[in-house]
Protein: tRNA modification GTPase MnmE
Amino acid sequence: MNDELICAFATAPGTAALAVLRISGQGAAQLADKIFRFGPIGSSNSTRKVVSLNGYQAAYGHVIDPLTQETVDEVVLLRYKEPHSYTGEEMVEISCHGNSISRTRLLEACQHAGCRLATKGEFSKRAFLNGKFTLTEAEGLADLLQAEEKQAQKLALQQLSGALGRQYSKINSDLLDFEAKCQMAIEFPEYPEYDISSAEYTQRMKELHRQLKALLAGYNQGKIIKEGLKIAILGAPNAGKSSLLNAILDEDKAIVTDIAGTTRDVLEAETSYKGILYQFKDTAGIRNSSDKVEKEGIKRSFKSAFEADVVLWLVGEPAATALPADSSSASAPEWETYVQGNLPAPKLLQELQAKGIKLFFVVTKQDLSACKSLFREIKQQYAVNYPVLPCSVYNRTEITQILTSLYDYYLSLGDQSLQQNVKVSSLRQYQGLCEIEAILQKLDETAAASLPPLDILDQMLQACLEKLALITGQKPDEAVIETIFSRFCVGK
Ligand SMILES: Nc1nc2c(ncn2[C@@H]2O[C@H](COP(=O)(O)OP(=O)(O)O)[C@@H](O)[C@H]2O)c(=O)[nH]1
Ligand SMILES: [Mg+2]
Structure:
């Protein structure tokens, strides 16, 4: 156990009825005895000691600063004995009044008694090192502390409850079992019963691939749950991009005028739908412009598109907004090949698809009759490959339909057949899983429909086990642990 005593408030700053201070480390109760007196303020003749309290036993009393002998606050103290505490160490929690003066003075009293302030996530890191939870659970906890959306919270809770950990241990035990079998076959070649048949090999590999694929597929959704769905709104000037954003937000966020080229900077805004965070980027309308500022804006429109999960391509009036030929310069901007009139050019469609970015057509101003026929045209041309949605900012149902279609897209990312509830949301874990998948892939290539040489199989399985141990933290990587726990707040 760590004999370096640390303390911090576990509760958020700001005024509240109570604030809870945590002290952790060997000798926490002894330290508490230096500042805590049993009974109401003024009664100093109690001989009771914190060290003689049982675990989970509370005591009412007050705190005195050992340096100044001044009374700090009236408090309730709770004792935890090792290993039955959050960190797994001896701990004391002191509930004081939730104002900044009480909090500051209580922290000072602890420091005067010989305790240092905890760093970010230090309590949780100690808990992890004492085996209170696994690394994946710690990541879940870090996410939970930051999760604002309902789905994100649910995901973090699943991870915290160990659902993901159980998936990992299933893969781990399958790998271990396979590897043990393989070693037996290597050790005792004379015993045919230890042989691995190529049927068994295929079966085991199939099962490993299946489990990995399930986790990898869940990442597409997990990432969105955690980080939000990134949506870029693109289209020609006056297509109604800013109006759509405002309608979605139900707020006058972006400037809307009938002057083409109003939006020049990328405007970001968030909203949530069914517990998923939608992050919109309203961009500058795409057209040939000699205006330096507008040109830069248009460049950024495409940058936003390539960074998004989804591009909403807005089409407003028919030919009115078509891209005029740029007669002025031989050096046409690089993005010119991305548009044809007010529609995305095949090149853009291909590049977006290659990057896994989904494009939706949204035909705007459906309250105007001229635009109604445009919707039919676009639908005819693109509906085979792309969702085509009608929209008028005056029609709430159509606005909601856009949000619903985006949500359906999010749902479609998961592997429906797997009914995958547990989702990997951390890039670190995802990359680790990809590496394992790559090793198995290579093994399959070596095997070429039969059994690979046993020593190679053994090596590869060991490599998989090592990668998995890095993911789950069974073989802790100090740098990874640092990164994960640095996402916690002080006191957690
Ligand atoms: N009738 C109608 N006009 C719209 C609609 N959406 C946008 N507009 C108008 O189209 C013009 C350009 O809109 P704006 O949102 O600034 O387009 P942006 O350049 O693509 O951002 C403005 O005059 C808007 O009032 C719509 O759904 N119906
Ligand atoms: Mg605009």
Q: What stands out?
A: The CA atoms of residues 263 and 357 lie 23 Å apart. The mean pLDDT is 88.
